[in-house]
Amino acid sequence: MEDLQRLKDEFIAEWGALGPAWGMTRTVARTHALLMISDDPLTTDEIMDTLSVSRGGAHGALKDLTAMGIVKRVVRKGERKESFLGEKDPWKVFCAVMRERKRREVEPVLAILDRCLDPSIGLKGSEAQSFTDQLERLREFVGVGDRVMEEIGNSERTLVLKWMMGLVKAGR
Fold this sequence. Notes:
By secondary structure, the chain is mainly alpha-helical. The chain contains 7 helices and 3 strands. It is elongated, with a radius of gyration of 21 Å.
């Protein structure tokens, strides 16, 4: 049992270290890891005790994870405290992270490009044309990425995996 707890603690710490690369804080990622590997729903107090985080940190993490759709509130019969259950399906977690990254990272880039591209179209001169051309290429590239992320984030696992395998085979 001691070995299992050590491995769980290591997983939670390492998952937390990866969180910033996925656009979430270390506390959010650690909370997600804990709930993902827990067999039973956990209360905020249990999360605080296990991860040694403040109530505010736990509440903030649970709010973010619930908004992403990878943690659900659970009401246990006969208990007044809310409990939380983490999504166990890796595909659903991946899709939720994909949707969140699209919202936080890709959509702001598209907004900047659109804000700068629209007024640049009417400008005269070779430098203005070069600028507009570059923004159009960026907009097209980021737009393709946005559409791919949208499709993956809202797709069924079997459809996307079949599509991805087709890409892998075509690349050989």
